[in-house]
Design goal:
Elements: E1 3-5, E2 24-26, H1 41-57, E3 78-79, E4 87-92, E5 104-113, E6 120-123, E7 137-140, H2 148-154, E8 162-167, H3 185-195, H4 198-202, H5 206-209, E9 212-222
Antiparallel strand pairs: 1-2, 3-4, 4-8, 5-6, 5-7, 5-9, 8-9
Region (Disordered): 1-41
Organism: Opuntia streptacantha
Catalytic activity: [protein]-peptidylproline (omega=180) = [protein]-peptidylproline (omega=0)
Length: 223
Amino acid sequence: MIPLRAPSHHTLHSGQSNLSGMTSITCSSPTPSSTQQPVSTGITRRVLLSTSIITSTLSPVPPVLSSPAPSSSASEFMELPDSSGVMALDLRIGTGPTPVPADQVAIHYYGRLGAKQGWRFDSTYDHKDSSGEPIPFTFILGSGKVISGIEAAVRSMKVGGIRRVIIPPSQGYQNTSQEPLPPNFFDRQRLFTTIFNPTRLANGEGSTLGTLIFDIQLVNVKH
């Protein structure tokens, strides 16, 4: 089992707990849960392979909660229902409402690639307003504005919750207009030239190139 460790330099400024400190999370093979469906062998074998590659190469990984640590009953990645292979680990269960389609949701996120040694391509913690506060990313749930994997992750979260997701290529970026997009041009260019690299795709590397890892906090929901 591979311990995942988090950096200590990111802090949320949205009325929620800090994402600071150092937490070790052990990832093991998914087991059935009452709230999340077990992995289907035939459908998600490729995703599990990608997960194995990611967890063995990422260093460091996105920020996680320093306290409380995930409970033993929620310490494993599980496939989200009706997500086409999105794997999720709840780092904190929220206590607020769960969004429904057409709600406006605001999230903080920390995004990495499965390729390029887990390169961090974007983070809302780097998007600051005039007072230096991080600006959450907002979108309408079900609008198709964002990649499918983020929608799948958010629609079963509660406000205040934090979830780490591993998004397979089929639920990640399908074109260069899907959000969230890094605001920096060179980061966008690097992101998309990696994901849509024709030579490497032809060599069968698509399952690694387009795999994404996000830590997502659901900040608020507006009906």
